[in-house]
Amino acid sequence: QVQLVESGGGVVQPGGSLRLSCAASGFTFSDITLGWHRQAPEKARELVAYISNAGVSTNFANSLKGRFTISRDNAKNTVYLQLNNLKPEDTATYYCSALIGPGYWGQGTQVTVSS
Q1: Which residues contact 3 (CB under 8 A, 6 or more apart)?
Q2: According to the 3-state scheme, what is the secondary structure of the chain?
Q3: Distance, C-alpha 9 to centroid of its chain
Q4: Distance, CA of 35 to CA of 113 (rounded, Å)
Q5: CB 61 within 8 A of CB 50
Q6: Cα(86)–Cα(31) distance, rounded to whole angstroms?
Q7: Beta-strand relationship, 109-113 and 10-12
Q8: CB of 46 within 8 A of CB of 52?
Q9: Can you give the pLDDT at residue 24?
Q10: Could you read off the pLDDT of 55-112 as tens digits, one per residue?
Q11: In angstroms, rounded to a whole number, what is the distance separating the alpha carbons of residues 15 and 1?
């Protein structure tokens, strides 16, 4: 079955960086658009970015362009999210998603930005 397992979250100071990873299985990874979303406490889940199956096209939330980068390695069945110049408002649980049928989600990885 489809599985998405995120990792790489943690606690970081403002201005710091993290790289999140999402290991996927149970489907043909190179055929599928993948995404990252995030959800802060008491807020709705929001889009961070999508990346097309070949990694040619990406789509970011406007407010995050320039600080975050999405990439994928189809040989490793893994999608990444590089987070740079982190701000306290980036604190959230970050979820990986696969655009298959109704959509699949991982369990999330927590990112906390705090001094």
Answers
A1: 24, 25, 26, 106
A2: CCEEEEECCEEECCCCCEEEEEEEECCCHHHCCEEEEEECCCCCCEEEEEECCCCCCEEECHHHECCEEEEEECCCCEEEEEECCCCHHHCEEEEEEECCCCCEECCCEEEEECC
A3: 10
A4: 22
A5: no
A6: 31
A7: parallel
A8: no
A9: 97
A10: 877 778 777 878 999 999 999 999 999 999 999 999 999 999 999 888 899 999 999 9
A11: 38
- What letter represents residue 48's amino acid? V
Record the tokens describing residue 68, joined without a space: 């975050």
**Which amino acid is present at 62?**
N
Q: Give me the residue label for tokens 């397992």.
A: 5
- pLDDT for position 62: 79
Assess contact for 31 and 105: CB atoms under 8 A.
no
**Which pair of tokens denotes residue 78?**
């893994």
At residue 90, what are phi and psi to the nearest 5 degrees? -85, -5
| Residue whose entry in the numeric block shows the structure tokens 């993948």 | 34
